[in-house]
Amino acid sequence: MTAGRYALHLDFEACKACGYCLLVCPRKVYAPGTAFNKRGFRPFRVTAAEACIGCLRCFHVCPDFCLEVAMAGEGTNP
Amino acid sequence: MDRLAKRYLRSRKIPGTTCSGCGLGQVHKKVLLAIEQLGLGTKDIVWGTGIGCAGRQIFNTWKGDNFAGTHGRVYALATGLRLALPEERKIILTAGDGDAFGIGLLHLLHCARRNLDVTVVVADNFGCQSTGGQYGCTTPRGYVTDSSPYGVREPGWLENGLDILDMLRDAGATFLARHSSFEGQSAVDSCAQAIRHKGFSLVHFIYPCVTHFGAVSLQSGDKARIFRWFEGLFRPEAGNSGDPRFRSGVYHDAGSSRPEFASSLKEWTRTVRREAAGRD
Question: ipTM for the complex?
Fold first, then answer.
């Protein structure tokens, strides 16, 4: 999802809904999920991408390689 | 999948079979970020794994060459590999706390004594979690586990003034670091230093087991509560005497103060061959 300086991509099928991204985000970019994926988890959602400051805390704590933070429009990583 | 998984890991292994909230992927990610930071590719590294949660989940995820060792013996296999491989080829070993500080400790100490050029990543989840949550040699004293219903009574490697990293330093290890799997760039930097280091390097990661240590020892499956408990472990003001709290960062860096085992043995072999050829 792109709505600011950073593009956030959360892989819906890979997410195991641990919620660490929500816990560490200082800007409330994430919210609990509502839909189930094929593995039976309810992945978290990016609901406020425009608030992202690119601190990468969520990226560092995501244990399932399902979260990517990139510079919007460039595809490079902050 | 993120860019690290696409570039370095086998797609059929990602996402892995770890429990939701398990920190093992956080540990793996820190090492992959260090590899990316150093500009290394899949052909530059051979990856070995041990047994248990850490061995099973990390095994065969690496797109390049990899192998699994028997319990606690991955260091012995790596010693042979180190002698056979070109010096520029890196060897990274991911092992659990039992693989490193329990059944594998003697092999690990000899690896440090020889100053073998390998990087050991210890993924420590405070016990034997893959077998059902029994206590191990790093489980904090007093905590209830599946095999200690009244709390662990024996001292672990990380309390009462003991630190397993001290023993490794005394055995000859030339680079040691410790981090929580929840840490960010500082942990990546330590991993990068360890991989770049010519000699024995070890990064000790503490990571959360939600299913056993969390649910039984911390009496909560709530990941937010478990996260805060782990954050508290690494409070910078906390020492390491009498409780399981410790500091993170580089613990010991002896640089190139000791000769590396494989390169010195190869040099010695060349010398002997030259002398033998001179006698003929």
Answer: 0.93
